[in-house]
C-alpha cells in the first residue's frame, strides 16, 4: 500500500531545491564563459639618435711634480758657522748671502800666500837682472887676448932660435904658455855658454815659482770666498740642516762635504710622466708641437684645477728596459707655489682630434662575449641588436663608434633591463645627465652639449610612465560572492 508524503515532510525538501539549482547554474556558467586576460602595453624606452661630431681624444696620465732646478748647499771649507742670513722656507734670489763660515783662518792663509807671491816676484827680477853672462863673456875675452899674446911670443922664440939668437928653453916655455891659454879659452867658452843657459833657466824657474805663488794666492782667495755661501738660483730654500756654531766642511783627511740646505725652483715647475714605449712616436710629435696640458690635483674641497696650463717640452734619451717606459716632462707655471715637488697630479692632454665620427651615449654600448653592441629600434618599433666597433674614447658622456652604426639611428639608453630583441617598444626621447664640465642654462657662456634626443638642440622631455592595465574581476572571487549566504 503506497503512502503519500504529508505536507510536513515535503516542506523542507522544496526549501533547498532553488538554492542548489542556483549554485549549479553559477558553476556551469563560470566554466562556459572564461574571462579573457589583456596583454600589457609595450614598455617605454628612452632613445638618443646617433650623430656625427668632432671629438678630441683626451689622455689623462698621472704625473709627479718635480723641480726643474734644485741645488744643495754644501760647505766646501772646514770651519764653524758664524752667521745664517735666511729664514727657513723663504724665497731667495740668485746671489743672496745665506751662510758665513769663520773667515779668519782663511784670511791669514791668504796673507801668507801673497807674501810668497812677492818673494817669487823678487826672484824673477833677480834672475832677469843677473850679470853672470857678462862676467863670463869678459873673462873669455881676456883669456883670448892672452892666448893671442902667447902665440906671438911663441913665434918670436921660434924665429930667434932659428937665428941662434934664442934658446930652446925659451921656445918650449912660450909653446907651453900658448897651450895653457888655449885650454883656458876653451874653459872660458864653456863657462860662458853655461852662464847663458843658467840665465835663461833661472828666469824660467823664477817665473814658475811666481806662478805657483800666484796659484797659492788664488787658492787662498777661493777658500776665503767659500766662507760666504750665496744662492746659485732663484727658488725656495728649505730647512736649515746645520745651525749656527756647528763645525762643517770636509774632514781633515778630506771626505764628504756637509749639506747645509736645499733650494728648489718652484716657478715654473715640472711634471714627470712615465709613458709606454709604444707611444714614443706620438709623444715625440706632441713635444714638437709644444702641446698644452691641463693639470688637476687633490684639494681641500675635492679635485682642483691648476689655473695655468703648461706645455710638453722634453723626452728622455733612453727607455727604461725594466718597465718599457720613457720619461716625458711638462713645464707648468706655478707663480703662487701651490705645487711642490713630490706631489702626484693628473694631467689632461689632447692627443688627437677625431673629425666627423659617430657618437652615442656611453651607457648605450654594452660589452658582450661577441664584442660591443647597442640596442636600436627598427622601422616597426621593435628592438634589435646591432654590433658596433666602439673605441675607448669618450667625450662629455658620448662614446665614439668607428663602425657598425650610422648617424641618425635611434639608440636605446633607458629601459634596457625591460627589453629583449624583437620586442615592440614605445619610444620617447631619453633624458641624459648633464656632463659635469658643462654649465647649466642659468650659467653664462653655456657650452654646446650633445643632443639628448631625436631633435638636437631641444631639451628632452622626461619619459612618460606606462599606464597600468585596467583591472578585471577575478572569476573565483565572483563565484564566492554569489554563493555566500546572505546574513
Key phrases:
single chain, 487 residues, alpha+beta, four-stranded antiparallel beta sheet, 24 strands, elongated, disordered N terminus, disordered C terminus
What's the layout of helices and strands?
Blueprint (H helix, E strand, L loop, with lengths): L6 H26 L11 E6 L1 E9 L2 E5 L3 E6 L3 E6 L6 E2 L4 E5 L2 H25 L3 H31 L5 H59 L1 E3 L4 E3 L9 E2 L9 E7 L4 E8 L3 H9 L3 E8 L2 E4 L4 E11 L4 E8 L11 E18 L4 E3 L2 E7 L5 E5 L1 E7 L2 E6 L6 E5 L11 E4 L45 H9 L4
Parallel strand pairs: 1-24
Antiparallel strand pairs: 1-23, 2-17, 3-12, 3-17, 4-11, 5-7, 5-10, 6-9, 7-8, 9-11, 12-16, 13-14, 13-15, 13-17, 15-16, 17-22, 18-19, 19-20, 21-22
Helix pairs in contact: 1-6, 2-4, 3-4
Question: How would you describe what is shown here?
Answer:
With 487 residues, the chain is α+β, with helices and mostly antiparallel strands. The protein contains six helices and 24 strands. It has a six-stranded antiparallel beta barrel with strand order 3-12-16-15-13-17. Strands 4-11-9-6 form a four-stranded antiparallel beta sheet, with no helix packed on it. Strands 8-7-5-10 form a four-stranded antiparallel beta sheet. Strand 21 and strand 22 form a beta hairpin. Helix 1 runs antiparallel to helix 6 and helix 2 (104-128) packs antiparallel against helix 4 (168-226). It starts with 6 loop residues before the first helix and ends with a helix.
Amino acid at each position: 500500500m503506497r503512502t503519500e508524503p504529508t505536507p510536513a515532510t515535503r516542506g523542507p525538501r522544496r526549501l533547498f531545491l532553488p538554492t542548489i539549482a542556483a549554485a549549479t547554474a553559477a558553476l556551469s556558467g563560470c566554466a562556459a564563459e572564461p574571462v579573457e586576460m589583456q596583454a600589457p602595453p609595450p614598455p617605454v624606452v628612452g632613445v638618443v639618435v646617433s650623430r656625427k661630431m668632432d671629438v678630441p681624444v683626451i689622455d689623462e696620465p698621472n704625473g709627479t711634480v718635480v723641480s726643474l732646478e734644485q741645488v744643495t748647499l754644501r760647505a766646501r771649507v772646514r770651519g764653524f758657522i758664524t752667521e745664517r742670513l735666511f729664514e727657513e722656507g723663504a724665497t731667495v734670489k740668485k746671489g743672496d748671502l745665506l751662510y758665513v763660515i769663520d773667515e779668519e783662518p782663511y784670511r791669514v792663509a791668504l796673507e801668507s800666500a801673497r807674501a810668497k807671491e812677492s818673494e817669487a816676484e823678487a826672484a824673477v827680477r833677480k834672475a832677469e837682472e843677473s850679470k853672470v853672462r857678462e862676467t863670463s863673456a869678459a873673462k873669455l875675452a881676456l883669456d883670448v887676448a892672452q892666448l893671442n899674446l902667447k902665440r906671438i911670443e911663441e913665434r918670436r922664440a921660434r924665429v930667434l932660435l932659428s937665428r941662434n939668437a934664442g934658446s930652446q928653453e925659451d921656445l918650449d916655455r912660450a909653446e907651453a904658455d900658448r897651450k895653457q891659454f888655449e885650454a883656458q879659452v876653451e874653459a872660458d867658452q864653456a863657462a860662458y855658454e853655461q852662464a847663458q843657459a843658467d840665465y835663461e833657466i833661472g828666469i824660467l824657474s823664477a817665473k814658475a815659482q811666481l806662478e805657483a805663488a800666484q796659484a797659492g794666492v788664488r787658492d787662498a782667495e777661493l777658500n776665503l770666498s767659500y766662507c760666504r755661501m750665496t744662492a746659485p738660483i732663484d727658488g725656495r730654500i728649505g730647512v736649515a740642516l746645520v745651525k749656527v756654531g756647528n763645525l762643517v766642511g770636509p774632514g781633515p783627511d778630506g771626505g764628504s762635504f756637509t749639506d747645509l740646505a736645499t733650494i728648489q725652483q718652484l716657478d715654473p715647475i715640472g711634471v714627470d710622466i712615465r709613458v709606454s714605449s709604444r707611444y714614443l712616436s706620438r709623444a715625440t710629435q706632441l713635444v714638437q708641437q709644444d702641446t698644452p696640458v691641463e693639470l688637476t690635483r687633490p684639494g681641500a674641497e675635492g679635485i682642483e684645477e691648476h689655473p695655468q696650463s703648461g706645455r710638453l717640452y722634453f723626452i728622455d734619451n733612453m727607455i727604461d728596459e725594466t718597465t718599457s717606459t720613457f720619461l716625458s716632462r711638462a713645464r707648468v707655471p706655478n707663480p703662487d707655489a701651490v705645487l711642490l715637488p713630490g706631489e702626484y697630479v693628473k694631467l689632461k692632454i689632447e692627443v688627437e682630434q677625431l673629425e666627423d665620427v659617430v657618437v652615442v651615449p656611453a651607457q648605450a654600448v654594452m660589452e658582450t662575449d661577441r664584442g660591443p653592441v647597442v640596442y636600436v629600434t627598427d622601422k616597426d618599433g621593435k628592438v634589435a641588436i646591432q654590433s658596433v666597433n666602439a673605441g675607448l674614447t669618450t667625450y662629455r658622456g658620448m662614446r665614439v663608434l668607428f663602425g657598425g652604426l650610422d648617424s641618425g639611428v635611434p639608440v636605446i639608453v633607458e629601459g634596457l633591463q625591460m627589453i629583449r630583441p624583437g620586442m615592440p617598444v614605445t619610444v620617447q626621447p631619453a633624458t641624459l645627465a648633464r656632463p659635469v664640465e658643462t654649465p647649466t642654462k642659468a650659467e653664462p657662456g653655456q657650452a654646446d652639449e650633445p643632443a639628448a634626443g631625436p631633435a638636437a638642440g631641444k631639451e628632452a622631455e622626461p619619459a612618460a610612465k606606462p599606464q597600468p592595465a585596467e583591472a578585471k574581476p577575478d572569476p573565483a572571487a565572483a563565484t564566492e560572492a554569489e554563493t555566500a549566504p546572505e546574513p
